[in-house]
Amino acid sequence: MKHFITAEGITRGELERLYSVADDIKRNKAKYRTALSGYIIATLFYEPSTRTRLSFESSIQRLGANVISTENARENASAKKGESLEDTVRIVQGYSDMIIIRHFEVDSAERAVKVAKVPIINAGSGGGEHPTQGLLDIYTIREYRGKVDGTSIAVMGDLKYGRTVHSMLKLISLYDGVTVYGFPVKGLELPEFYKDFLAAKKVKYIECKTFTDIPKDVNFIYQTRVQTERLEDPDIKIEEMILNKANFARFSDNTYLLHPLPRVDEISPDLDDDKRCVYFNQAHNGIPTRMALIYTLFRDFYNIDLK
Ligand code: NCD
Question: What are the catalytic residues?
């Protein structure tokens, strides 16, 4: 693997090798402390971020590399003066050995790769994909269930612009016997492209009309916020989507609740103490998975023996 710009660009074997590295990183953090010392990695963020940017920058530093960063590139970098993404990549790759990009356009990562001479990681491309979030989501599923084959998962909320859902579904489709229940906000249904994608991969996709259509013993619920910044009319009602102590009680002891975060109102804080609610731990899995990805791309792109 030389770049990571879409969740479609990885095989099951590559994903499992990456998770073995992530497992090793979790067990032996100290071993990786200087793995990438002397390298510089750039984070170029054109859209807001807390978890993704900070967990990437933490991962970079935990691998011993240095980071250079533009946190609000749309306003504070040359994009504001009219520079194209391609030109920015051409410049920044002269200052760094890898570029991690979050951008508001769906095709941004593909465009960056076309001119790139260093590995590129897509940290979120508009309403399209967010493949590294998908990596940590599946890693979390694997952690709580012990395996991913045979998983049932209900995806709720904004399935249209929720890019984390898109990437997570592409990755989970690498596994066998997966069933996905969709419970979208009205008007924010899963795009046909993803329904066709799942069908082609033999993943069952069942759309639920009401909340109670989601089976009580589903393995995971993946809640999402409405991506109001991508909507012309952001005034969308989500009352029937809100998860709280009362309505979550109908699920089994082994139904875990995931959310890519940030949450707004769609998960009531009264659920946070429930041991089935694992979204904070899910976010923390961003560290071993992103460290494993950066490490693997360096090894493959530069053909260097890191250990
Ligand atoms: C998500 C994103 O940016 O797509 N956040 C994240 O990276 N964990 C989800 C969101 O913003 O709703």
Answer: 51-52, 81, 102, 130
